[in-house]
Design a protein that fits this description.
The structure holds two protein chains of two kinds. By secondary structure, chain A is α+β, with helices and mostly antiparallel strands. Chain A has 14 helices and ten strands. In chain B, helix 4 packs across helix 5. In chain B, helix 6 links the parallel strand 7 and strand 8. Classes of the chains: A alpha+beta, B alpha/beta.
Amino acid sequence: MFRYNVKLALKSMRRNLILTALMIAAIAVGIGISMTTMTVYYMMNGNPIPAKSDVLFAVTMDSWSPLRPFNDDKPERAPHQVTYHDAERLLALAEGKRQTAMFESSLIVEPVNEDELPFEAGARVATADFFTMFDVPFIYGSSWDQAADAAAEPVVVLTRQLNERLFGGEDSVGERLIMQGTHFQVAGVIDSWEPTPRFYDPINGAFQEINEMFVPYSLTLSLELGSTGSDWGWKAEEITSWEQWLNSESVWVQYYVELDSPRDRDAYVAHLDAYVEEQKRLGRFERPMNNNVYDVMEWMDYHEVVANDSKVLVGLSFLFLTVCLLSTIALLLTKFVGKKSETSLRRALGASRNIIFNQQIVEVAVIGFAGGLIGLLLAGLGLRGIQYLYEAPDGLVSLDWVMVLAAIGLAILSSMIAGLYPAWRVCKIPPAAQLKTQ
Amino acid sequence: MLQMTGVKKTYRTELVETYALRDMTVSVSDGEFVAVTGSSGSGKTTFLNIAGLLESFEFGTYRLDGEDVSRFSDDERSAYRNQKIGFIFQSFNLIPDLNLFENVDVPLRYRRLSTSDRKQRIEHALETVGLASRMKHVPAQLSGGQQQRVAIARALAGDPKILLADEPTGNLDSTMAHQVLDLIEEIHANGTTIVMVTHDQELARRAERNIHLLDGRVAADEIADKRSAAA
């Protein structure tokens, strides 16, 4: 019966092409707009590392000014980065299962091919644990080891794109690369890895592309690697040398730790408290004790990766979809009025009310399906527009299978809901109503 | 086959109450060909609608093919209508964008018959009315008489116990009307019970029995004079 109803639906749709086109257009526009905003919201709100989001924690400690909080609007919050000095100490204490201090930087790369000019490439300066903690996939080699961290060895992990540019995509493990005048050895090449949002560094942009290479954090001192990311300071300090900068109260290092259980989490905060107590005795950390760790999703909320505007926009787009569906209801009523005589005849020939109801619902579902398909095209165009408008990287805002299925499902479901009243009206037509007047 | 006893049907509006049938008592035996006549407003169509389970009624009892259908639910009436009754309407009532095969298929679809069974029945019914070669045509490609023959095929395909015809030749010219009536008589000759509503006395005489309605009651019930019809 379902196939028969689909066949009847297609015939009925052909019978009044203009009305059908209007209904499909109304649904398509509603679905297109709501799926565009939904996709952006879904992309922003998704868990970028579901398997580990509850065991990875960003660390904050309140080393800010005793006179005012780091954030006047949210005085309970500590700075979301730590000083180089504190990061070094936390790394040395190594109280977590794994930990990494990190920041964004850039290095001047001298290409292997001498015909090419040197160029600047973005780098993430981190410890070896970064790759294990964040499940970074490799195509060649692996991360450097902790011995390389300890010895501040000049090793580098390249992204697939940079490896393509420098070594033509070949296995470059063991190859030499001159950066900042230092010979680096390639330890590994990572595979495509675009966590969205970029959860490990929402501070410098949750929707930025990942850095082009990774180098050991321990090189910061010897190569004087400066941060190209955000930094904040509160203390009037005289900084005329690299050492003074590293020892300043400026916060520019992000610190992540991996902890396996809530108990480990509590224990780690206790360790932080103990460390801060020690620092307080040395005259630092003059504000009340305020040490925290935030898991991945808490960290996303903290940085309002999903802006309230996006939530409002999703709400508005669904309101618009509702308006489109109300228009569809009106059009369906008009369409179904034209089917009175056929319905009456079908009832006379033995169709029950349920059969008639189902026939109409299948018809609106088919209309919804068509509207969903066109809506997907519109959503694709909308996302292209957003990508262009915000200069987002390729593929960052795109419809994945979940969203495609959601769009089709939403289109069919919402159309069926819109069709309930018109279908109910139609199935109430008595069998003898129109037979004499046709 | 059909026994109505004391059936009463009233149409009500806010202002007026109209008695369509008053104490209607009528009986039609298996294999009979009965014509129901009467002037406009005499209750012919209401009688046919009730007989065809298209409408309910307030008082009285109605037995069809041995079953008391008086208090059937809407769903039960639909199913019984589909199984037992074939309809022929004055205005053919074919669905314009379905071809002949699909039009005849409509009542069979609601019986959940197998595809091969439906196909066999449809082809046989269209052969019976002489339109098997045109089963892919749509109604608009046919003459009025041919369209009515398709409607008859649709009624026959379900192998009904009783055929209810409402002015079956009302929209046809005399030649086509005779062809259609010949077909109806042929169907009757094969043993199907037929009740035909008509205002045309000449056509009524081709039935075996004439029931004349007046003001919602049976005013006369007599054996038809076939000789005058033949003349």
